[in-house]
């Protein structure tokens, strides 16, 4: 009767799976986010196939073209997942003060730079011989190892109630800078692969745009809100502060994505801007239900895209494990080096928190695939690497914080208004 | 860099247009929802075309097939709009007590039945000669005039703060019954058009399923929650009552849609079930931000689908105005007859509140179109009818309530927790 019956059913199944998994993992004293990811793997098209099948209505919309209907579902899932992670990072931004970030800014920059250089250089150097393949392939794999995908770390740090800790702030700051650097590396690699050369001017323009965007939002946006407040009393629309905050979230996410940054970076910056407003706690309180509704979709849908059959191929799996090890050790080493001077636990938390690779690595790899620079097995290797570096984070971070003797800030966090609300 | 940049930008533009329109219409002392609909017309593909254009990333996902990418955007918009109106009716359900509904149940049934019979019979009788066309065509047009689309009325009643009034409860109850009746008529018409006959058994099965679903949810679901409470303390997941309520919303919406009812009927019933829980006000408080985020998408996207060029064709427009008049007068007359005994203002409020036709009318018409039972101009006529019957509702309802001497319940409503929150 209606083209979206199947899609509504999918949304229900995804949310149900997320909640069952969260419940089971809470009872097992494990991070619920891992439950959500695994639930996604289970119900996804590569396992039970409970979601992602276009129904007759949707297929009819595409004039009987099943493949197009499946692509449409993929695009829909992608958008809903993206909305979920945008809300997640916006919320984390709301909990983050610019001043606190700037206080760790130099350290975050160091962590980001070393955390990008180490995987790229060592990845390139080690992976080349490992693959026994041409230079361009090693460059692509090195580039795919670069970018941290901070979504899962942000979620785990929130779940643990330590989002305001020094380590969390360094991770978030480093993630913003890391994303800018990753974008520059992507542009360089794309130039090398397509034209064989790199235009310094073009790279400079791309980098300048990203730095300007970030700097403008953080310094001018937050500064203006801090100094002058929101002053939305003149607006007659209902609940203007919340509406304007949501507008900024969507707008800065779209803007960040359109200049080549991750959409979540824009959403995080939007959150930071509104964290300077007096209405901050009220905004957090109102954003929380949207978080609880949309964020699980990101993790379940992400899980559903994992093709676990890749793990069955011994050759691919061995190579993938080796490259995952390179990915983990280089990020741990690079970011850890940037953290020198802190106690070992903080070094480890930041190193592990920066470890997950996500979309950007897959974008690099699929670009390489489409340009013929890497073969499809290596693409599979990158997929496995991004899955494993993501899965390793929640339990290890949890362990690092659980045994932390110096963790009063966890309790402190709970005194923030969000902490008084139904627990996240 | 990412297939959803254009879609994120669209979401931003839609939300921005909604908020600007709401602000302007609030200042003009007009219902913001009309502003949202008109903003949708303005930015939609038939006017400025600010949204709905697939970007290169999305087109690439469909292997360069622009038409498929456009269909995908349509499917995505449809789902997001549907989520918005599902949240709207779920919220309205949370504000509706089963006991209050049952108290007006007989009256609501009378309003629904007469409000369905009058447009169908008179539509069939009057439209036949008007079109000078075969019987089957008149049957289809009559059927397209039947179903009330209660989304806009629910929104206006909430905006006016009168959702708990007797008239509102009669409208909501009648809308549920109306939807069941419309589904039965759709099944009959579809049978007539495809096989030339109607299987009483099949119609009985369809009707029985719908009645069972509604009765079970309302009586058993609500009764169980009222008597035993939610008792979700044993669940370890975060904020279990809200999670379970959202699950019920998605699940009953999908279930309603899968048995041929409108998804919003399922969502409304889910809300009514949770309105019996002790956690009711807390659930309302948490559902409100999701309402504020998602509901505007429904109205702007609905507006964006209006092809105003249809209004430029004098022949179609004249016929459309005549049929719109039939649609309005028959619903007003039928529902008004069902309200006999109430003061004239209540009669008018229910008659006008039941007037908007939406998706079901378009489904009937497009079924007729695809079966060759109606020509494309008549489809255009039905589209115009559904737009006009929708646009007429907010200003008239507002007028009817504004001059109502007996409107203390409006102030009363504001004492509910939702009323204490930032105004909707």
Short key terms for the protein model shown above:
homodimer; about 425 residues; mainly alpha; Na+/H+ antiporter like fold
Describe the structure.
The structure is a homodimer of 424-residue chains. Chain A has a single domain (86-297, 309-420), classed as Na+/H+ antiporter like fold. The first copy, chain A, is 75% helix and 0% strand. Chain A contains 20 helices and no strands. The first copy, chain A, has helices spanning 5-27, 32-43, 56-61, 66-94, 98-103, 105-131, 135-144, 151-159, 166-194, 200-228, 240-258, 263-274, 280-304, 314-338, 344-353, 359-370, 376-391, 393-402, 408-413, 417-420. The longest helix of chain A has 29 residues, at 66-94. At the A-B interface, helix 1, helix 4, helix 11 and helix 13 of A face helix 1, helix 4, helix 11 and helix 13 of B.
Q: What is the domain tally of chain A?
A: 1
Roughly what percent helix of chain A? Answer: over 70%
Q: What would the average pLDDT of chain A be, to the nearest integer?
A: 88
Query: Which fold name is given in CATH as the topology of chain A?
Result: Na+/H+ antiporter like fold
Count of helix runs of chain A: 20
Ends apart, CA distance between termini of chain A: 38 Å
The outline of chain A comes out as: globular
Unreliable stretches of chain A (pLDDT < 50, length at least 5) are 409-424
The fraction of residues in strands of chain A falls at: under 5%
Radius of gyration of chain A: 21 Å
The greatest interface here is: A-B, 65 and 65 residues
Q: What is the CATH C-level name of chain A? A: Mainly Alpha
> What is the CATH architecture annotation of chain A?
Up-down Bundle
Characterize the biggest β-sheet of chain A: none
Number of strands of chain A: 0
Order of helices and strands of chain A: HHHHHHHHHHHHHHHHHHHH
Multimeric organization: homodimer
Give the class of chain A from helix and strand content and strand pairing: mainly alpha
